[in-house]
Design brief:
single chain; mainly alpha; Arc Repressor Mutant, subunit A; Four Helix Bundle (Hemerythrin (Met), subunit A); two-stranded antiparallel sheet; 9 helices; globular
Length: 248
């Protein structure tokens, strides 16, 4: 009778473990590259090379190619024939309809299904509120943008309706860079104050179980942010026109 060999196909359990580990790596790569794009570490037009990224992360080009495909489907990068993969540009005018869709979806956040909020979730949101208070003194745009992303991802994870959760997060990241690009001409202290109020109100609504109010709060702040940036864009356009007239 032959002794069983140790060189055998992996068991279903070990295959599942390997698959889970690979998926975790894939998710981590996606988050790192998405964050770099949305925090403008990779500016619009930046070239993303598969070989360079594979070398940086110590992996093959296959998972890098998959991650880039995902980022392309999210509208954060595009592949151009003869050029390669580059980070897309964003502006308020081109994403006007995306913002308006975000407004409508926000009001559904706590209405299509109950939000899944635990004590740990509330504690995490509270840490974001503390971070926001500290930023009043620092006034660091990139850290504020990072905090905004962390808060929104935490909040979106509580949305009970899976399709709504997915599209809400996707649309958020499509528009997130617009604010950071607008910062030099904005009142950062005022923006931090608005965001601090949003976090506080969301926490209070979740504490009393008013999930519908959470969506209304987010919708109101998206609308106000959109309108502030629209007014800023019009003011800049008016200034440019005046400048052109003066030099004509």
């Amino acid at each position: 009778m032959k002794t069983p060999t140790t060189d055998r196909d992996p068991s279903p359990l070990s295959e599942a473990g390997a698959s889970t580990a690979a998926q975790a790596r894939f998710q981590r790569l996606h988050k790192i590259l998405r964050d770099r794009i949305c925090l403008l570490d990779y500016a619009p037009g930046h070239h993303l090379g598969e070989e360079d990224l594979a070398q940086e992360f110590g992996t093959s080009r296959t998972p890098i190619r998959r991650v880039l495909g995902w980022l392309e489907s999210e509208g954060l990068i595009e592949r151009r024939h003869g050029v390669g993969t580059i980070v897309t540009d964003v502006d308020l005018r081109s994403l006007d309809q995306v913002y308006r869709l975000r407004l409508e979806l926000a009001s559904l956040m706590g209405r299509l299904a109950p939000m899944r909020c635990s004590d740990a979730d509330l504690a995490l949101l509270q840490t974001h509120l503390t971070r926001c208070s500290k930023l009043r003194q620092q006034r660091e745009p990139t850290e504020f943008a990072r905090l905004n992303m962390d808060f929104c991802v935490a909040l979106f994870s509580m949305i009970g309706n899976a399709p709504l959760r997915e599209i809400t997060e996707r649309l958020y990241f499509q528009t997130s860079r617009i604010w950071l690009k607008s910062v030099p001409a904005m009142d950062l202290e005022e923006e931090i104050s608005h965001f601090e109020r949003q976090i506080f109100d969301v926490i209070e609504a979740l504490r009393v179980g008013d999930h519908g109010a959470v969506g209304d709060i987010c919708r109101a702040h998206i609308s106000m942010s959109f309108n502030r940036m629209t007014l800023l864009r019009h003011a800049q356009a008016g200034g440019a026109s005046l400048g052109a007239t003066a030099t004509a």
